[in-house]
Amino acid sequence: MKKTMLLCALALSAVTAFGQESRQDVSFSAVGLVSPNVTGNAVHMSTTHTLGFLGSYRYLLTPRSGLELNYGFLQNDNKYVTSFIPNGRIHTRQQEITGAYVYNLTFKKINPFAEVGVGALIFTPIKDFSTNNLDAKQNTNIGGLFGAGVAYEISPSFDIRAEYRGFIAKAPDFSTANAVFKTNRYEVISTPAIGVAYHF
Question: Which end of the chain is less crowded, N or C, counting CB atoms within 10 A of the terminal residue's CB?
Answer without folding.
Answer: N
